[in-house]
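Figure S7 source data.
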Amino acid sequence: MPRPAPPAPRRGRFAPSPTGPLHAGSLVAALGSWLMARRAGGEWRVRIEDLDPPREAPGAAQAQLAALHRLGLVPDGPVLRQSARGALYAAALARLLDAGHAFVCHCSRADLAVHGGLHRACVPGARRPDPAVRLRVPPGCAIAFDDGVHGRVRQDVHAEVGDFVLRRADGLWAYQLAVVVDDAGQGITDVVRGADLLDSTPRQILLQRLLGLPTPAYVHLPLRLDEAGRKLSKSLGAAPVEDDPVAALDAAWRFLGQAPLAPRPPGPSAWLVAALAAFAPARIPRGAPGRLAATHNAPDPEGA
Ligand code: GLU
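C-alpha cells for the predicted glutamic acid complex:
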C-alpha cells in the first residue's frame, strides 16, 4: 500500500512595510505570526514590502530586521524584498490582462469621486498618459472565508470595493497583487497579520482564484491603536521596541490575550520558548483589549 503523501509543511510570514522602526503594533503581528507558525511545527518567513519608495524611511528595513533579531524572532530562509520582484508581478499582471480579468484604466480620481471613489465602469473618453491597470470585479462577485479569529467573513467585492488597482498610475505595483504573488511564491500556508487587512483578504482570495494560486489560512489579529484610535504606524505612538526586548514581547503577548508568563523569562530566547509552550490561540481577542498611550516619533506622510 502506498503511503499517503505527508501534509504540506506549514509556513507563516511577517511582511512589514519599511516605513519606520518596528513598533509595538508591528511586533504584535510579528510575534503572532511566529507563534502560530511555530505552534504548527512550521517555518516563519519575513518579507520586506518595499513597494512604495516615497513612503519608505531610509534604513527602516535594516532596522526592522535588526530589531527582530534582538527579539529572537529569526526568520527561516532568505528575507524577500518586494522591490526585487517586479518581473513576477508583471508576469501575473500579463496573465490577468490576457485572460480579460484586468484592464487599462484612464479614469482619474476626480472621475471616481462621484461614485464614492469606487470604480465599476470607465468614464467614456477618459484619457491620461499614465493609465492604471485594474481588476474587473463583476456584479455579484462576493468572497467568503473563515478567519481564525473573526470566524466567517464575507464581502461583496463588487459592491464594497469595485474594480481595484493592480498597477498604479505612477507605475508602482499595488499591494494586493504583490502580496498574492509573494504569498504563493514563498509557499505561505498561514497568513497572520493585523485586522486592518481583514477587508483586503477577499480581494486577495479573488486574485488567487483568478491566477490559480492556493488560498492560505487567515488569522487577523487585533490592532494596537493609539489614544486617538489610529493605527500605531500612522501615529505619533510608533516608538521603536528595542529598548527592553522582553518587556516589548510581554506587552505584545498580553495584547494577544495571553496569560502572563511566570516566572518572567530573563532574555528573548527563553521568553519565546516559554511563550510557545503556553500559547493559547483561542484567547486572542477580536478587538483591542486596551489602548496604548501615544509617546513620540514622527508621523507618516498623509495617505500612507
Ligand atoms: N506590509 C503590510 C503592512 O506592513 C502587511 C501586509 C500583510 O501582512 O499582508 O501593513
